[in-house]
Structures are given as structure tokens and as C-alpha cells.
């Protein structure tokens, strides 16, 4: 291995109790580039501390981010089934609204026509009903033919169907059919808010004609806002429903919002991430849909074999530990690590180190000596 460090460690050794001298640790290095051998004096001066893998209950934190979102049932697009002209509205984006509140008034001649058709059909139905009852009595006494009775019955049923259909059309535009008479036909209709919430978008202006497919306003009910997080594929198996988390915004990192995971998607995006939905325990009005948030998810503690973090040395992007081969020989062995907590780190390839003595303190001294030798 090529060494990027150029360091020399000298150990001061007292000889015969009267003098000292420098002894360079690299003098005792074995030809094996991953093996370092120390003399008695070097071993004493290095101050190495040995230890073994220990069973620890380690928990980790997944740090991620996402945005405030609302479920589809809490996002309302307001449109008019029959279309019409917008006569008046007071809505502005961000305005708070109450359920049942008038949010717009629409005007169109087709509203007049629909009410006229309803009243006309209602009058025809009344006539058809009386004629049906009269023909029914005549037919019972054989004073009229069955054909005439059947024609009257068909007309009566047709008028009933027409009136029922017009009744539903009127209700779709918020007109109560029972309140209509020839003296109070209206050319306007009122549009009511279906939710408590606030206005997200206003897509129309006064005097504009809108079609039935056009969206006038978009409303949001914030009572069920949730946090939509992006979780990488490698972390998905660490999550479970009901798992706790805390979230915070960039503007107020000290203000924490507690929550828990309510839904874990298994549909991965092209970035190899999945959506994880979380509910807040106590959300407030400062949290708005689309707002960016950070989150910390605590992963459940698991018992695993771990080593002190200071035992790990890094060289050229790879982690190593020094394993004692003999009293004075130490071999540098690659180590795979996982979760870390409270100064300990999980060892994934633990089978390589079970029962072996590992250098806990002084590992970097051995690394520098080993790499200095390889540079010679």
C-alpha cells in the first residue's frame, strides 16, 4: 500500500537506568505489509490497550427530509356542474373559510330554464296524476279501454321520472326544489364551502364564464396534514408502523414536532427512495402544505457485537482494526461497520474477530508505523 503519511514516531527508552535513546518503531516491522512487530520497549512505549468484541444494544437515527402534505380527501376542487358566469366572490389564496359558508355567487340563464322546467313538469305531473286516477276508476268499471288506461299510466310515470330528474339537477346547483314557485325563480345560485380550511388557489375572476369541467377554487382541510418523507431503499427494513420520530423546519430547528410513521410505501422511485407518511401528534397552523421539513427517526435498539470506535482506523477509504497475532505482532484486518452509538460501533463481519484480541487504543500509532515502513 502507498502511504500518504510521512510521520516518524520515536520512543524514548531508558537504558541501564542512566541514559535515554530514540528507537524508531518502524525498525521492527515485518515484511508482511499488514503486519507490524514491536520490541518489548516499543510495546511498552506505545501504550496499546487490547479488547474483544462486546455485545451492545445499539440504536441509530435515520436523518432524512420531506414535505408537508395532505391526503387527497382533504384537497377539494370546487366546480359548477352546469357552468355559468361568476357574479361575485371574496376568496383570496390563504383565506380561512368555514364549512357551509357562501364562497361564490354564479349567474346564468340556464338556471332560470331549469327552474322553469321543474315547475312545468310539476304542473304536468299533477294533471297526469288526476287523469290517471280517473282512468283507473273508469277502467275498473270497464267504462274505458285498457289501452287508454295504459297510455295515461305511461304518461303519469314519465312525468314522475322527469320531475325526479329535475329535482336532482336543482340540488346539484344548491337550489332547494321545495322552495321554488313561479314568483321566486332566481337567475343566480350560491356556491358553499364543503370544508373548514383555507383557500389554496383562485382560478377565476368576476364576470368569467366557467364550464362544468373548470375548477373555480382549490380548498384544503389542514386537519389531517402529514409529513411525507423520502427514505432510501437501504433504510426501509429498519422502519415499522408506529415508529416515533421528530421533525423540524430549517427556519426553526429548535422547535420539534413529534410524530409517528403511519404508512410505508413499497413503490421505489428512480432515485431508489420510497415515500413514508407520518402523522403529527400536535401540529399547528404554522405547518402549511408544501413546507420543507427535516426528520430524525430513531431505529429500534438491537443487540449486536461491537467494538470501541477508536479501535477503527481508516486508510484510503477503508476501515481496519489491528488484531493481535502474538504478544508483539499485530495484523491490520479490514472491518465492516454498521450502527454507532455512545462510542461503540457495530461490527458486521464479526466472525473474523470473535474471541480475538483487538487494539482498542493506540491503533493509529500502529497504522502510522506500518505505512511509514511501506514508504521505504
Automatic annotation (TrEMBL):
MF (Gene Ontology): transmembrane transporter activity
UniProt-listed GO biological process terms: copper ion export; plasma membrane copper ion transport
Keywords annotated in UniProt: Transport
Protein name, UniProt field: Membrane fusion protein, cobalt-zinc-cadmium efflux system
Family assignment from sequence similarity: Belongs to the membrane fusion protein (MFP) (TC 8.A.1) family.
GO CC, alphabetical: cell envelope; membrane
InterPro entries noted in UniProt: Beta-barrel_RND_2, MFP_Cation_Efflux, RND_pump_MFP
Domain CusB-like beta-barrel: 227-298
Amino acid at each position: 500500500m502507498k502511504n500518504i503519511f510521512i510521520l516518524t514516531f520515536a520512543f524514548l527508552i531508558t537504558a541501564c537506568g542512566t541514559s535515554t535513546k530514540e528507537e524508531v518503531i518502524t525498525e521492527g516491522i515485518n515484511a508482511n505489509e499488514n503486519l507490524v512487530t514491536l520490541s518489548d520497549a516499543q510495546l511498552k512505549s506505545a501504550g496499546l490497550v487490547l479488547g474483544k468484541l462486546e455485545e451492545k444494544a445499539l440504536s441509530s437515527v435515520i436523518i432524512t427530509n420531506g414535505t408537508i402534505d395532505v391526503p387527497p380527501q382533504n384537497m377539494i376542487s370546487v366546480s359548477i356542474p352546469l357552468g355559468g358566469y361568476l357574479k361575485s366572490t371574496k376568496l383570496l389564496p390563504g383565506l380561512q373559510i368555514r364549512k357551509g359558508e357562501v364562497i361564490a355567487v354564479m349567474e346564468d340563464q340556464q338556471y332560470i330554464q331549469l327552474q322553469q322546467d321543474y315547475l312545468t313538469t310539476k304542473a304536468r305531473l299533477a294533471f297526469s296524476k288526476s287523469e290517471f286516477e280517473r282512468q283507473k276508476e273508469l277502467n275498473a268499471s270497464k267504462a274505458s279501454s285498457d289501452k287508454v288506461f295504459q297510455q295515461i299510466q305511461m304518461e303519469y310515470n314519465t312525468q314522475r321520472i322527469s320531475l325526479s330528474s329535475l329535482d336532482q339537477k336543482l340540488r346539484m346547483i344548491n337550489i332547494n326544489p321545495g322552495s321554488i314557485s313561479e314568483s321566486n325563480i332566481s337567475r343566480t345560485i350560491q356556491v358553499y364551502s364543503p370544508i373548514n380550511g383555507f383557500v389554496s388557489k383562485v382560478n377565476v375572476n368576476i364576470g368569467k364564464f366557467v364550464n362544468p369541467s373548470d375548477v373555480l377554487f382549490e380548498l384544503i382541510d389542514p386537519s389531517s396534514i402529514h409529513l411525507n418523507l423520502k427514505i432510501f431503499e437501504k433504510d426501509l427494513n429498519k422502519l415499522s408502523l408506529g415508529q416515533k420520530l421528530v421533525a423540524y423546519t430549517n427556519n426553526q430547528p429548535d422547535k420539534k414536532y413529534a410524530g409517528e410513521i403511519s404508512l410505508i410505501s413499497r413503490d421505489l422511485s428512480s432515485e431508489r427512495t420510497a415515500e413514508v407518511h407520518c402523522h403529527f401528534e400536535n401540529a399547528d397552523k404554522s405547518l402549511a402544505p408544501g413546507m420543507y421539513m427535516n426528520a430524525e427517526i430513531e431505529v429500534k435498539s438491537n443487540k449486536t457485537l461491537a467494538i470501541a470506535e477508536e479501535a477503527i482506523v481508516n486508510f484510503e477509504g477503508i476501515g481496519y482494526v489491528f488484531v493481535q497475532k502474538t504478544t508483539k505482532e499485530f495484523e491490520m484486518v479490514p472491518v465492516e461497520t454498521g450502527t454507532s452509538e455512545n462510542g461503540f460501533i457495530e461490527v458486521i463481519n464479526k466472525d473474523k474477530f470473535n474471541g480475538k484480541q483487538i487494539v482498542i487504543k493506540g491503533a493509529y500509532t500502529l497504522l502510522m508505523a506500518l505505512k511509514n515502513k511501506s514508504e521505504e
